[in-house]
Design brief:
The protein is mainly alpha-helical and 126 residues long. It has one domain (16-107). It has 4 helices and 2 strands, in the order ααααββ. The chain has helices spanning 16-44, 48-75, 77-86, 93-102, and strands at residues 106-107, 110-111. A two-stranded antiparallel ribbon has the order 1-2. β1 (106-107) and β2 form a beta hairpin. α2 crosses α3 (77-86). The N and C termini lie far apart (71 Å).
């Protein structure tokens, strides 16, 4: 069992929200671990029919992980911000944080500078 599967602090000292987020984090770990196991089995089998079934099962585990990740995103504004910064971007991952903080990066959420991309509505002085 992974060390993170159990609570690290006494349950009576934790809020219900913290315990629910812990459940979600553990569930994501389990879903990705299952996807990894299926991936290995798909590679290892020489039977195409079995490989197709295992690949289907693997992809179901990925769906489950995505569903839990979305639930977590909705519960945690900091995680939401990080996911909006990094997911569905095209820049090198290691450069995104620097670019986002400088206002130069774009990702799924659009321009990180806060601009709407429509230009200024202020009149230009002659």
């Amino acid at each position: 069992m992974a060390q993170s599967a159990g609570l690290h602090e006494p349950e009576d000292r934790l809020s219900p929200a913290t315990i629910d987020r812990h459940r979600a984090f553990v569930s994501i770990q389990e879903e990705f671990e299952a996807a990894d196991w299926y991936d290995q089995r798909v590679d290892a089998t020489t039977n195409p029919e079995l490989a197709a079934i295992l690949a289907h099962n693997r992809d179901e585990e990925k769906e489950h992980a995505a569903m839990v990740l979305e639930w977590l995103r909705r519960q945690d504004p900091v995680l939401d911000g990080h996911l909006r910064t990094y997911l569905f971007s095209s820049e090198p991952v290691t450069e995104i944080e620097t670019e986002a903080k400088s206002g130069n990066a774009t990702g799924a959420g659009g321009d990180f500078s806060g601009a709407l991309g429509i230009g200024s509505l202020k009149a230009v002085a002659p």
